[in-house]
Amino acid sequence: MLRQLFPPNRGWHFKADAATVSAHGGRLGQFATAPRPPLGRERNLHSADPSLQRDNPSEAIASVSDQALFELAPVTLSLTDHSALWVTFQALRAQGVQDIADYFLSDPRRLQQCWQEVVLLRVNHRALSMYEACSETEMLARFRETIHPERPADLLHWFVALWNCHSDLQHVSCDTVRYSLKGKRMDVRLHATVLPDSPSPWSRVLISAEDITAKLAIEKENERLACIDHLTNLSNRRDFIAKAATELSRAQRYNAPLTILMIDLDHFKNVNDCFGHHV
Q: Which of 122, 146, 25 is nearest to 70 (CA)?
């Protein structure tokens, strides 16, 4: 799975003799991890089984290499267990729930209940940096703080995306809001896929997260600049036509009166010529 995300022909090279990763010609050095309990049957993300080195050396090398790639990947990665949420979703479908957004909005506490069913198993170094965690242990213990307790609706887009995806969860993406452990708000874009050897549905979900806060801020500023006159900071013709069309549709929908007022100031050019446009 990770090899598909970061294939060798994109600058990542695997060394058969050691868990060494070279990125775009630069050596990142030998990678080693402390022994950790296996997370499941997937070989790519848990520590190499010593028996593999005897029975299948190439498989053991692939396992260690993929661990290195997970840790040193240039994107934020986390391994999660959504199996309990999958069971809940199946039960809701059996009960006849069709619109999961309405189900959650009718009682926002349900969002928190489903959030408690998600388990974070592992994160890489980029995730620790993004969420301002000192260690993986701290991140695993406090990851629920990435959702503001007074804003459970931030979970809505993510859960709706999961609900609408196929049961095998080959790929799902959505834009939502998360918080760092120090309280910094972030607009994030999440991409998720289930690892192929997951022991049960959604039990091993690999999620990448991108902080798009700055990108959205630039987009909003560009939208604002496209709608105003830079000299007067008033709406330009394009913005006026769009807003006028909206108000006209509203008046027609509710059969309400609509008034348009146009003001023309005589000899205003003289004001500009005498005192300047800034006046």
A: 122
Where does the chain have alpha helices with state H? 2-5, 50-55, 57-72, 83-94, 100-105, 109-115, 125-130, 136-142, 156-164, 213-227, 237-254, 268-275
pLDDT in tens, the chain (279 residues): 555 544 444 444 444 444 333 433 443 444 333 444 444 444 455 544 444 444 555 555 546 667 888 888 889 999 999 999 999 999 999 999 999 999 999 998 999 999 999 999 999 999 999 999 999 999 999 999 999 888 888 899 999 999 988 666 678 899 999 999 999 999 999 999 988 878 888 999 999 999 999 999 999 999 888 898 887 888 898 898 999 999 999 999 999 999 988 888 888 888 888 887 776
Question: Which position has the token pair 């979703």?
Answer: 89
- What pTM value is reported for the model? 0.65
What number of CA atoms fall less than 13 Å from residue 26's CA on the CB side? 3
DSSP helix/strand/coil, 14:
strand
Output the six-digit token pair for 91.
């039960």
Q: In what order do the strands lie in the sheet with 185-194?
A: 119-123, 76-81, 205-211, 185-194, 172-179
What is the three-class DSSP state of 238?
helix
